[in-house]
Amino acid sequence: MAVVFAVASGPLLAVEMGNTYEKVVDEMGVPVSKMEVGGASTLNYPDSTIVLRDGAVVSIKMVGVESGDTYRKVIEVKGMPASKIEAGVSAVLRYADATIKLREGKVVSIKMSGVGQKISVDVPGPDRQRSR
């Protein structure tokens, strides 16, 4: 028997400060354009710009929000989130198009929602083995 789940918001594409170029391309795909100046690389995507210095992410910007922005700036740009989770000095803001993580009131991670996809999972019957 197969169980099919439709995921409306799609997968989260996770890019965080310190990620390598390989991790960014793995998560986001090949950038629309890439510019290299000195030790910095700027990767441009339709909805975001990612800057790497010496092979590690140092800046993430998505339509109006970027790494280092304050909670107040995020709310001014994106409005109130659909949900907010707080734990100690960290907070996670969930929007329809992104999940934004803050630490000590500053953006440290932006996970963009991808295009919708369908996930199919085989559920083994009593005489079948689980397959992936």
Task: Summarize this entry quickly.
With 132 residues, this protein is mainly beta.
Layout of helices and strands:
Layout: E1 2-7, E2 12-16, H1 21-28, E3 33-37, E4 40-45, E5 48-53, E6 56-62, E7 65-66, H2 71-78, E8 83-87, E9 90-94, E10 98-103, E11 106-113, E12 117-122
Antiparallel strand pairs: 1-12, 2-11, 3-4, 4-5, 5-6, 6-7, 8-9, 9-10, 10-11
Please give a handful of descriptors for the protein shown:
five-stranded antiparallel beta sheet; 12% helix; 132 residues; disordered N terminus; 12 strands
Question: Would you mind describing this structure in some detail?
Answer:
The chain is mostly beta strands and 132 residues long. It has one domain. The protein is 12% helix and 51% strand. The chain contains two helices and twelve strands, in the order ββαβββββαβββββ. It has a five-stranded antiparallel sheet. The protein is globular, with a radius of gyration of 18 Å. Residues 1-12 and 115-132 have low confidence and may be disordered.
